[in-house]
User: Fold these one by one.
Assistant:
Number 1:
Amino acid sequence: MAAVRFSVLVLLLVQQVFAVYRDCSDFDSLKNCNECIRCGGHWCNDPNEEQRCTTMRYDNWCTGKQEKLKFLTNVDEDGTFVQPKYRVRTLTIGMDDRFDISYPSKSKEPKVEIVVNTTQTSNFQVSNKTSCYDSTCTTTIKANPETNFCAANGGISEYFHVKLSVEGIKEEVVTKFHVPCACACSAKVEERSPVCNGRGSLSCGVCTCNEGWKGAFCETPICEVKRGDVPCTDSSRDNIECSGNGVCGPCDKCECFTDREGSRYFDKDNYCADICMTINDCDDCFLNPIPGRCQTCHFALFRQNYNETLMTQKDDFNRHVWVRCNGSIDECYYEYAAMRDEYDETFFMVTKSCDPVQERRAGAVSLTLPIVLGVIALVVAAAATVGYMMWKNRPPPVPMADPMYQNIDAEDCTGENPLYKPPTSSFKNPTYGKW
Ligand SMILES: *[C@@H]1O[C@H](CO)[C@@H](O)[C@H](O)[C@H]1NC(C)=O
Ligand SMILES: *[C@@H]1O[C@H](CO)[C@@H](O)[C@H](O)[C@H]1NC(C)=O
Ligand SMILES: *[C@@H]1O[C@H](CO)[C@@H](O)[C@H](O)[C@H]1NC(C)=O
Ligand SMILES: *[C@@H]1O[C@H](CO)[C@@H](O)[C@H](O)[C@H]1NC(C)=O
């Protein structure tokens, strides 16, 4: 007999040797199908069901969406001497199985030996009781897996075997107790599930949210950094809060439009400020007509001569790379185009100016190609009529270091975007103290 492979057990009461920590006292807190059934609960795959894991199924609970565990077909095989000889049963955690084994016996107290083996832990109970009558004995076996039976790696088909032998009888009784230790649904994961608002994966009806989202349906953003100054919460004021280039989104932040001319430059961390607003911050640079880096600007801003070909450049999303802007400095009206490259360097080229020196440079192309200029003029005019150029003359965004910015504190906070002012025809904005 394969005594070496079996561990002989007298009574397997609470065997804590391979104990798995599992708190089965609070079914509400079991948020995972495997954990639920390992505690002997029933699981609901319906994301809208409040009670997902329960010991007692009640009416109308989780109609049609209960997780079905794998159950093996019952097997009862009779032997020559012992009845039954082979048996298969499926047990769920906490469930009892009791059955009688009868066999002929001369002794009134036959010696019964029970050995077990298991694919999981030995946290299951087996007990026996024998009674004899008229040279026939009946041994009643009771077996049940406990809440710490399943190991962390438990699958949908785990087992424990109970083998019983009676002294003097060659036939052995083997019972295979199949115990599901995992839910079949756990193996099915739907990434970016619509149930989870596309922000998480769905398995067994439970959303596992992507970073930055929480809630049963990943509906709530986890807001780490809030805008301290002007929370963008009033959707009726979207245009003002987000510079007209976006709407108030999750976490009180602006969600910038992505499909508009110039949207490739909308700055989500800065009220969706567009590139014209950014460049306006360095107006001084317009006064010096020499191409190259502008030394008075606090970011990398380069001036270059107007090149009409560049205006047709588009990015992968079919958005113009160069964006048209205008503004006035000391009553001098400018039109210019701007772009920012992947190194965060900003370029601009003046297309029109009241300053004759700048006008000459801007018009350099036109002197050699008057026909081209005519075409440009037409394009510009057409674009203007369809409202193509949205870039109004906006005051410059105020850099963090600017004392004006720091003055915007709680008591005189008006709830206004400090960057946004309704379009005016001049840069001479009274709140901007550079002039
Ligand atoms: C456990 O016992 C059953 C029944 O005797 C046997 O078929 C199976 O091979 C045993 N498994 C192991 C791992 O010993
Ligand atoms: C089976 O029954 C005998 C006799 O009552 C007892 O001594 C033994 O501990 C029992 N074995 C198990 C595994 O319950
Ligand atoms: C204008 O830009 C295009 C594209 O970069 C370039 O090929 C062309 O030489 C430029 N024209 C002038 C006049 O600089
Ligand atoms: C600046 O451009 C916008 C549209 O692009 C236009 O509506 C506005 O009149 C221009 N500003 C001035 C002062 O011409």
Number 2:
Amino acid sequence: MVRAVWAVLRMVSCQGAAALNLNVSGSVIDAASSFRSVHVPFRAAHSKVRHLSSAVRMPEITTDHLDKKQVQLLSEMCILIDENDSKIGADSKKNCHLNSNIDKGLLHRAFSVFIFNSEEKLLLQQRSDAKITFPGCFTNTCCSHPLHTDSELEEKEAIGVRRAAQRRLEAELGIPMAQVTPDEMTYLTRIHYKAQSDGVWGEHEIDYILFMQKVEMACLIPTM
Ligand SMILES: *[C@@H]1O[C@H](CO)[C@@H](O)[C@H](O)[C@H]1NC(C)=O
Ligand SMILES: *[C@@H]1O[C@H](CO)[C@@H](O)[C@H](O)[C@H]1NC(C)=O
């Protein structure tokens, strides 16, 4: 279960570090510390990433405590990329999110969607407690990965990534695909993002930032 909340985005600095004031149940939370996208300029992080072409060996990781849905998602194939976002292969979501592989330079393509309403409030979600990375954290509307499929690999005007966003907005937030078509999404930029969630799991991705404004979204009834 994810939870959706409308919040006012008060300020985004040029570094992209978001200062977000979130009013949940009458109390104001500064969500900056749990905001998932710590923006690093795309080029600046290059030197830290080593090119990885050899096969990645899997350590023994138990997923017994995860629910069935999350385990199923872990076998989806993500798009492996180099530091310049050129595709170099495919690997499972599980392998892509293990710190042991990230430490060796494994990098995949991802996206972060930000949906604003007519009042320019940003739709946030609270991540499910069942997620392997950042369970329970508040984040922007939807973050996920394009899959290694013909449709989502297509790079022209970031169409593959925008299709993936449409797919995940339905899966995570129940927004019908007809209400969030790829042509309504504006691809702004890419960021290179790396963060550990815990000792085992983490993120290392080049993240396509997608913005869209929906005047009406009757289907979506956030908790606030
Ligand atoms: C937060 O919400 C409460 C109740 O709706 C309201 O009284 C308060 O002014 C809000 N605070 C901010 C900073 O928006
Ligand atoms: C990425 O692009 C930079 C600048 O063009 C280049 O120096 C570097 O070798 C490229 N990296 C890879 C892995 O191709």
Number 3:
Amino acid sequence: MGVNPQSPVLELDHAHDQHLLDTMCTAPASAFQPHDKIRDLRAANLFLSLTTIGLFIVTLSLLAMEKQSQLCLHSLLLDDDANVCNGTKLAFENQLCADLEVPAPQAGGNVTNGYIGALEVDVVPNTLPFYQSSMCPVNVHWHLGSEHYSYGQFDENGDGPHGNIPRPEWAARTLTEDKHEELQAGFRCHHYNAADPKFTTTYDWKHCKGMDIGETYEVHWPHSASGACGTVNQYQTPHYDGIFCKLDMDTFSTLAAQDIANAIGVQSQVFTVVNDESYFYPDMMRGMIVDEKMGMGQDVAFYTGSTTGDTRSNEVCSMYTPITWQVDRKCHLISASSFDKLCYDMKLQRDDMSNDLHPHGSRELVSDDLVANNQARKDLR
Ligand SMILES: *[C@@H]1O[C@H](CO)[C@@H](O)[C@H](O)[C@H]1NC(C)=O
Ligand SMILES: *[C@@H]1O[C@H](CO)[C@@H](O)[C@H](O)[C@H]1NC(C)=O
């Protein structure tokens, strides 16, 4: 566009621009004084040229951003295919333990210091912190009561608002009356005191479901080197999708038992939930709480076993084995708000983790003949 105000082309442009101005803006033409008209229009012309280009660029980038965000929203939230881990679980059905020719070491077992399982295995557990083996947490979930057994911490002498479970019959001890519950429960810790309000005062749960103050829960953080580590798809429910995200059956079948124990593992920590903010831990999402001063994650049992849950027992074995277990032997107090914050964080994940926002049932304590004999002890620092 020319800059000579005498140019007829420019006059034409002025008229054109005035028309544009009238249609685009609500400012009436009478706002311009007649004697200033040319100068004003010249200025308006220059202004408009610049703003038009500017507006054009802004519009384009807004459109691009909108398209981008629509694309992002679409691919992140609406498109099932974008969750690259969905359905990647490799399916291994539970088997009758007695039918197995090759023994399948199980979890959770006794993790009391000094305990050694009775199932002879060649594989050793991965005793490094999992992040040092390219593993990342791919899920977090918890069980009602403890699946593991740590004498003096979570065992038959613990208690809670719904009582405890007895020492198993196979461990040759007298049985007490079992409490009937909807979920198959595990052992409770020794902290519970019905006279102390922090174990009894109800909490207004906003995000977790089916939780009780004073109750014991065993939290599991499955880790995998084949997870979608560092991406929006890292955390998955079911956790098997997280574990096997980048592992297909062909590759899996080339792995030796030791490769599996090195690359797949679960961190486990047992808590009694209290209504007391002095036990608040803001981040239960990224793994076991390790705090030297509080004695958390300091006394850890290492062994190889399987996945757990109440579909497995001492008759029905999990075939997801041998994976490494790193189990904190101590039971810790934790605030209800810590769990509720965890559930909040879980709701923020790309995958729908709603199936893990409540406690799961516990497997019965694994009998000695199904527990690997490779227990190791080491500080996780
Ligand atoms: C994920 O996979 C399952 C089965 O593999 C399928 O039923 C489901 O529709 C898929 N999508 C989501 C978002 O879960
Ligand atoms: C667990 O192991 C400890 C140490 O070996 C032992 O004293 C205890 O009786 C075991 N508990 C059960 C239930 O087997």
Number 4:
Amino acid sequence: MNSVLPLILAMLAVTDAAVQVQVNPGALQIGNSRNLNIRCSHVRDKVPTISRLSYLLISFASDAEKPVFRYLASVSSVDGLDYDTTAAVAGNITRGGESWLSLTWSYPLFSRVGLYKCEASGINLSGAARTVSHIVEVGGVRHLDASLFDVIQNQSRDFEQLKTDEERLTASYLSLKSRFDRAKEAHFSISAAHNGRRYYLSSISNVLVANEVDAICALYGGYLAEVDDDAEFEFIKSFLTPYTQYTGVLCSGTDEALENNWIHANSKTMVKYIKWSPSDSRGGRSENCLFFWRPHGWFMVDWVCQQGYANYAVGYLCEIPE
Ligand SMILES: *[C@@H]1O[C@H](CO)[C@@H](O)[C@H](O)[C@H]1NC(C)=O
Ligand SMILES: *[C@@H]1O[C@H](CO)[C@@H](O)[C@H](O)[C@H]1NC(C)=O
Ligand SMILES: *[C@@H]1O[C@H](CO)[C@@H](O)[C@H](O)[C@H]1NC(C)=O
């Protein structure tokens, strides 16, 4: 298809309802419109001017007063798409239904303002060549000067890139989170909320190392449970009561460094509160960690910080702020 052809055809063309041009957006805002789409379509009428369509063609004239149309694109039943434009071009000639040709520019500039002509060409029922056409005008408002528009266009492109990156990151985050949640559900029983925290009771383990389980609590955004007052102790005690399969549950508090000087290993603060079991005989230098102890009604005892607990069913309790 060469650009001389539409000029000749333009002289022969008549306007016909069967050929339509849609423009989106109707009024171009240079600097604000992301896309400009020109869509030319042809639907066969009941009494068709054109009974067999051979091609659709879009041409453009920048001067609406003295239009000189320049070829942009065409779609033909024989040759398919042909174009001479930076727009994204799509189209199809169909026998019975709608035939169409569509041009889309990203970040349209002021040079897109003008007249767009859509021509449909084919033969009528007597076999004579017919061309019908429709012209639309695209007006434009310049919102930004060109250099600023350039910046915005670049930023817009960067933003698209970021969005794609973010979608990819979100997808891997969600997959990681779902694996993490599955591990959490498999390993912990989780309390109701109390003062903006939840308590995670680990499953029973044969080996506990206080430092290591503190790190596991940290993985879930918390620390070994630090009991600060009666209310917190009572809440934890009610939470633990149904778990009769446990002998003891490790919580925060150690006097490993200095006998009877109980500190929280995570926050390095003094332990303010210990609900000692009245029936526990304190273990001295060999027992430097705090446990809730079921045989003593879940009151607290001091016991060894790390070893295998073959004869006991023990777990640990994390405190996780929400
Ligand atoms: C064109 O339309 C025909 C029939 O409607 C369809 O089979 C064909 O896939 C279409 N081609 C394109 C490129 O859209
Ligand atoms: C086909 O077009 C020719 C030339 O314009 C015209 O003379 C003829 O009447 C048309 N036939 C029909 C069926 O419209
Ligand atoms: C926009 O991006 C193009 C190509 O990446 C670059 O050449 C141009 O300098 C950029 N313009 C501005 C204003 O950043």
